[in-house]
């Protein structure tokens, strides 16, 4: 009986507990709904609705002539809210829409697309990504005319999610200077150094969380529009850059070198017109830009004989020497304490003038002179390194600048042999851009300019930041010394180690450099070759340095390897620059009775072509107010006629530069494939022919 009572008691206790819980549940529901309802509804909304960042459009990077070096192109991911369309619209359009999606993406059948959209609509899904492949703006415009999609976001539920990609119209041209930026905001070049301007300010928009963790944007009055990034206007010249890269790559390939750099600077302003850095790629065959040796720390190395110019500056400034003084070099070997200095020429140069010593790049002569006049006071010599602005970084606009290195007298690393070796470019480290800035100062009559890569930052016609030419040193040496240094540099090309690049059309001034490379702590028979200088020597406009590391083959010296690249680039620049080739107006005219050969003219922008003709002194009839024109020869006269690119046919782009041809053809919805460089010589689709959907046009440039 006691057992029965015990069981009944337990059952009653359990029943009472269950009843209490059962009563508590509706009570709690009532409390949540009535008393705490606002609180939990706010929490739910906070979980399911969030203001999320909307990325700003990144600013463009432009070359000096306005050519685009980097821009952000809009791409779109296509999604749909399948519940938005009304039943009649949905039923009428789903078959056609599915067929178009299948034909466009070519990844699944029309039936599969139809089933996918219908299933999502039946499950009342508010967000469905139709395909993860991103489409371009023109494809997006076409899709907006498709069934269901044509009713827009609110009527048809179509969602075009914008995704921006960085695009470089000139591909790898100046790629390391233009630079990059990754997802972690780490990068290099202008993209990284000017990121604060380029990135703009992200906006905010309301997004709704959907099943599966995806987020759908919804319209809200509190959305904050993004503030797009500013554009960056560089000093780079795409034509000079192309010439520099082409010449450098050709020599690197021919000499199977490790890497090379070229920098071209405008003498008066310090504007960098081109900077190329090419390194052997992973394939071991070709060359690509993977590091900025011209500026970066890895590019800091012993400069070699190009540093002898500073040694001559110090000697001349101290009035220790005259260029016609004689110096004994003996058999090309001279002992400094426990080490021997050698000349490159076997048997030496014997007794020569100091001028000849520099032109022939005698290590023995220069080191003997510096040791003779500064050996007892090496700090005095090193003070000229400071005076020339070479002891410290320039604080360049590009991040990652390498720091120069020079031993200091009186420290543990300073030996009796340090001064002689430093005087010829050893036991020290300089970047190519530091060496170039020094040579540029000599070309600029002693005024050292800071290298400039970016001249302005702005948006549209409004500039928010400008970078004027900056003087680093008002005077690196006296006028007399600078003139003598200029004479010495001209002599190197006229009679010295670079006489192989002597030019009959204009004078180059410069100095060869060859430094043995250290491997495992010992100097080897591999070389770091260079040539630094400027042109034209009588009225310098451009300075340049060419560096080629570890070239193979016979005669792997600066005069044999780097100097020819300098000349090739200088020749092309000289030919392209109209300021260096003034037009003789008296010899350029058009007349009906004169047998004058018409210039070859291609199609292009009317304003640009008219400007060229005016510079050449040619009078040409041209329609006013027209964007695009093309040449027409009428009765031995040249006229420009309208090139109507607005017609719904294949445009005529013959004679246009690639930039203009791409602009016109891609705006017609044509996919452009091209080969070669220069102007359009051939186009695969005949001008005036019917435009086909998704058609491809092949261009041949030359």
TrEMBL record:
Subcellular localization: Membrane
CDD domains per UniProt: PASTA_Pbp2x-like_2
SMART domains for the chain: PASTA
SUPFAM superfamilies documented for this protein: beta-lactamase/transpeptidase-like, Penicillin binding protein dimerisation domain, Penicillin-binding protein 2x (pbp-2x), c-terminal domain
Keywords (A to Z) from UniProt: Carboxypeptidase, Hydrolase, Membrane, Protease
Ranges of residues in domain PASTA: 644-702
InterPro entries for this protein: Beta-lactam/transpept (IPR050515), Beta-lactam/transpept-like (IPR012338), PASTA_dom (IPR005543), PBP_dimer (IPR005311), PBP_dimer_sf (IPR036138), PCN-bd_Tpept (IPR001460)
Protein name listed in UniProt: Transpeptidase family protein
Organism for this UniProt entry: Algoriphagus oliviformis
């Amino acid at each position: 009986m006691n057992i029965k009572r015990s069981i009944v008691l337990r059952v009653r206790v359990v029943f009472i507990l269950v009843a209490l819980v059962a009563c508590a549940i509706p009570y709690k529901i009532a409390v949540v709904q009535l008393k705490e309802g606002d609180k939990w509804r706010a929490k739910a909304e906070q979980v399911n609705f969030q203001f999320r960042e909307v990325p700003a459009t990144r600013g463009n990077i432009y070359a000096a002539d306005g050519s685009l070096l980097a821009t952000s192109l809009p791409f779109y991911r296509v999604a749909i809210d399948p519940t938005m369309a009304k039943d009649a619209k949905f039923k009428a359009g789903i078959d056609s829409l599915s067929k178009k999606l299948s034909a466009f993406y070519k990844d699944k059948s029309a039936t599969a697309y139809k089933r996918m959209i219908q299933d999502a609509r039946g499950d009342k899904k508010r967000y469905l990504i139709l395909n993860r492949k991103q489409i371009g703006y023109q494809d997006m415009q076409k899709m907006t005319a498709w069934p269901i999609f044509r009713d827009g976001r609110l009527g048809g539920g179509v969602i075009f999610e914008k995704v921006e990609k960085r695009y470089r119209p000139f591909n790898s041209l100046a790629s390391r200077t233009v630079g990059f930026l990754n997802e972690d905001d780490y990068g290099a070049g202008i993209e990284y150094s000017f990121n604060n301007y380029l990135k703009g300010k992200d906006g905010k928009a309301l997004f709704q969380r959907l099943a599966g963790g995806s987020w759908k944007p919804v319209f809200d009055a509190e959305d904050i529009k993004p503030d797009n990034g500013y554009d960056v206007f560089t000093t780079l010249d795409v034509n000079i850059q192309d010439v520099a890269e082409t010449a450098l790559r050709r020599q690197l390939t021919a000499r199977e070198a490790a890497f090379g750099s070229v920098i071209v600077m405008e003498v008066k302003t310090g504007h960098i017109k081109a900077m190329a850095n090419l390194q052997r790629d992973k394939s071991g065959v070709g060359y690509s830009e993977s590091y900025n040796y011209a500026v970066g720390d890895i590019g800091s190395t012993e400069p070699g004989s190009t540093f002898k110019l500073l040694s001559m500056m110090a000697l001349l400034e101290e009035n220790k020497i005259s260029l016609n003084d004689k110096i004994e070099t003996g058999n090309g070997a001279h002992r400094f304490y426990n080490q021997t200095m050698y000349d490159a020429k076997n048997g030496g140069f014997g007794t020569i003038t100091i001028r000849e010593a520099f032109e022939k790049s005698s290590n023995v002569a220069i080191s003997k002179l510096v040791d003779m006049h500064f050996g007892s006071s090496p700090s005095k010599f090193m003070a000229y390194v400071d005076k020339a602005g070479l002891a410290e970084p320039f604080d360049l606009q590009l991040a990652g600048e390498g720091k120069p290195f020079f031993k200091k007298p009186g420290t543990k690393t300073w030996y009796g042999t340090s001064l002689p070796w430093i005087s010829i470019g050893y036991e020290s480290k300089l970047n190519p851009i530091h060496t170039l800035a020094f040579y540029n100062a000599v070309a600029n009559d002693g005024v050292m300019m800071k290298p400039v890569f970016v001249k302005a930052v702005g948006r549209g016609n409004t500039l928010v930041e400008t970078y004027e030419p900056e003087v680093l040193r008002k005077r690196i040496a006296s006028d007399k010394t600078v003139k003598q240094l200029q004479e010495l540099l001209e002599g190197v090309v006229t009679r010295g180690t670079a006489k192989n690049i002597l030019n009959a059309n204009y004078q180059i001034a410069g100095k060869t450099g060859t430094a043995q490379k250290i491997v495992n702590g010992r100097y080897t028979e591999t070389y770091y070759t260079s040539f630094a200088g400027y042109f034209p020597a009588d009225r310098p406009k451009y300075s340049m340095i060419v560096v080629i590391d570890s070239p193979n083959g016979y005669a792997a010296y600066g005069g044999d390897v780097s100097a020819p690249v300098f000349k090739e680039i200088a020749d092309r620049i000289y030919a392209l620059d109209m300021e260096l080739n003034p037009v003789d107006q008296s010899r350029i005219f058009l007349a009906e009775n004169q047998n004058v050969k018409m210039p070859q003219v291609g199609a292009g922008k009317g304003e640009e072509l008219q400007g060229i003709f005016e510079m050449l002194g040619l009078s040409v009839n041209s329609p006013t107010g027209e964007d695009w024109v093309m040449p027409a020869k009428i009765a031995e006269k040249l006229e420009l006629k309208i090139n109507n690119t607005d017609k719904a046919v294949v445009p005529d782009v013959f004679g246009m530069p690639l930039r203009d041809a791409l602009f016109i053809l891609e705006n017609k919805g044509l996919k452009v494939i091209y080969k070669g460089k220069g102007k359009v010589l051939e186009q695969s689709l005949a001008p005036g022919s019917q435009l086909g959907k998704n058609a491809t046009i092949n261009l041949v440039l030359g």
